[in-house]
């Protein structure tokens, strides 16, 4: 039968990037197990608005696990305790009746808090702008079937490309490293013949931008892979390191 | 009587676009640098347009409401993108893609636009592959295809169940490259709130910085709208939470026509509604209909037992299952177009054969496919979709059939544009789902991605030059001009009015009420009575909104409730237009099904004699009804027929 639970929430509230934040405690009763985590926050916000209080600010959009907009550090895990999903796909059936749920924003030097649970991830855009593309203009490209690509390579590129840019890898990392995010893009493009031409330039430019923006180093704790909602593999980090070292040698 | 000029080029259908390009005006490179273009939206259409215009040398200002251009809702498209490559040697051609699209749209789209769409479709695939989009491939290394509804060929290119994501990331990467070069300036977490006209031409926008709440002004020589559709008028839809129709309403109130608002697509395969707290509906890709079979029990008592939880679908014998799409439409079977599949599901549920706890669901069953292809193949094709289903519903679709039901998904209607994708306001263009142009009364699967990218990569970079060619001597505008002041004042007044209501209800609660009215009276089956009722109810909801709304927080600050209120204010206007348009159109066509107009077999009954036109609604003021202007749809090359997916 349908599960209904009562919960206690400890939610991080913070007025702005420079303001001092603190946890606030809320109680919700009669939450259906079929409610998604964000719908549970909608219910809480509706309650806060009706009480004349400020609703909790959090990022979200597609609510089907693909836009990468939702974040939330729930009970010590980016995107919560369930595996291979984003917060918007997390359902309340994963929590116990009477449980206290702690909700925090992504915490990383690279992602300053904007308000409450909303953070600024524009650093990711800047890293992509530094070189996360193949330099072709619109038009004047060869026929799509002109270059055969082995299925295995194409599939590997697709797996790397499935990164949604949510930032869970950074939030999970004790060093606040963005290596999984950066390596996923470097790998996707390095695996494809179209992307080889500027593979070295790309790896160097993206790594340099990542360092410049204050993300930490990789010390192989593998927390990023563990928490990635799309199961992007850390083998991408190894591939990026190879690309990067090769690029440095050829300098 | 206002006359409409759709500017369709002369000549035979297959030569129109070539003729246009051969004779259009261009802007030389030195002059491009002096011209500014605002692009609003960063989905497939917006990002591809901004990137391509930047590459050409224009100075582009690109806006999005999310924290990054990559979040736009195009990202959620699952199934694929059509193109007439004929790589499968199965008889496809530009003409066939054109014909399928025109027929799929129930003969309510412009022939010339649709032909151009089919014509440029092949270039899109080439472009995306060059960008590094990892489309699915065969073992030989060449591209793989699959089938989608409304077609008898395999012309759909795909990247797992994440085609929209990969195409958008491709466009986003091209856009990012231009941002780096400085030809595109990006404004994230900005929402357009009004259009600015100077001497009748679109010359800028007013936008709100969503982080600070500050209202800002931006000037340009032309404005391109790529803000998507208005499906969220229904509150529950497959759209993202922030998807909205507000820019369309702003343009409409500044004089752009709103065309065919009642043409909304209801997608047949979505996860059914389960409760009042639900915030959105999740789509299960149409690609699932390649291998999944749709059925309900043949016997009412079985359906009742399933609803009561006494019987499981796997216990229903093969002979007691009604594969109603295969029964009604033998030629296309489970791959009939979306409007047809949605109505057929509604028909079965209304007749008492629905399943699930509410009775508003049908089965999508993979047991036969798993037996035929093996679990591994099915997993490789649809694994991520099955996982998504299981996380939401808590049932394993490999073992028990999925439950699905139709939901609002896409809006074919939108801002009216001519062949150049220019609206009725000079200098204002609309591309992608935001315009009305290519899908007629129903869009085929895998054609939204095609149209968004066609408009952005291969149409607007040409047609906008034809407009800008005589603007090269126009200097940049100051945002201190009175026109900007007037528009900003109007925005501030509207915000002040909303904040001052001081009522008792949250934005969401009124939005849900609006959604109920829309689904109930302007939904899958409409009648004269239901639409008249909708017009009355919508006025009541609008009154409730403007007298009993409560928005906490400050104006000049991050204020999510205010953002939502501004959007819902416009959804109320769109809902009214949809009902008005549906009431005017006394026929059934595509996604617009008027129950009074159907064949004895229950198929949509068009009235080509009286309704072979695009209805263009012109704003006439707050207190008067809009004026209807008709753009006749003259078919020179295709003979209109009753759509037939049976033989």
Principal-axis shape of chain A equals: elongated
What structural category arises from helix and sheet content of chain B?
A: alpha+beta
> Which range best describes the helical content of chain A: under 10%, 10-25%, 25-40%, 40-55%, 55-70% or over 70%?
25-40%
Total number of distinct structural domains of chain A: 2
- Strand content bin of chain B: 5-15%
Q: Biggest sheet of chain A, in brief? A: 5 strands, mixed
Mean pLDDT of chain B: 96
Share of helix among residues of chain B?
A: 25-40%
Sketch the major β-sheet of chain B: 5 strands, parallel
Q: Just give the CATH class of one domain in chain B.
A: Alpha Beta
Strand content of chain A: 5-15%
> Overall 3D geometry of chain B?
globular
Separate helix tally of chain A: 9
What is the CATH homology-level superfamily of the largest domain in chain A? Answer: Alpha-helical ferredoxin
State the separation between the terminal residues of chain A, measured CA to CA: 65 Å
Query: Which chain pair shows the most residues in contact?
Result: A-B, 75 and 81 residues
Write the layout of secondary structure elements.
The complex is a heterodimer of chains A (251) and B (647).
Chain A: E1 4-13, E2 22-32, H1 37-50, E3 73-74, E4 77-78, E5 100-104, E6 113-115, E7 118-119, H2 122-131, H3 151-161, H4 168-172, H5 179-191, H6 193-196, H7 199-212, H8 223-227, H9 235-249
Parallel strand pairs in A: 1-5
Antiparallel strand pairs in A: 1-2, 3-4, 3-5, 6-7
Chain B: H1 16-23, H2 29-32, E1 36-40, H3 44-56, E2 59-63, E3 81-82, H4 94-104, H5 111-131, E4 156-157, H6 163-181, E5 184-187, E6 190-198, E7 201-209, E8 215-219, E9 222-225, H7 246-253, E10 258-259, E11 264-270, E12 293-297, H8 300-307, E13 321-322, H9 324-328, H10 338-350, E14 362-365, H11 367-373, H12 375-393, E15 402-411, E16 414-415, E17 428-430, H13 448-468, H14 482-500, H15 507-521, H16 528-548, H17 560-584, H18 608-611, E18 613-618, E19 627-632
Parallel strand pairs in B: 1-2, 1-9, 2-5, 9-17
Antiparallel strand pairs in B: 3-4, 6-7, 7-8, 10-16, 10-18, 11-15, 12-13, 12-14, 14-15, 18-19
Helix pairs in contact in B: 3-6, 3-13, 4-5, 5-13, 11-12, 15-16, 15-17, 16-17
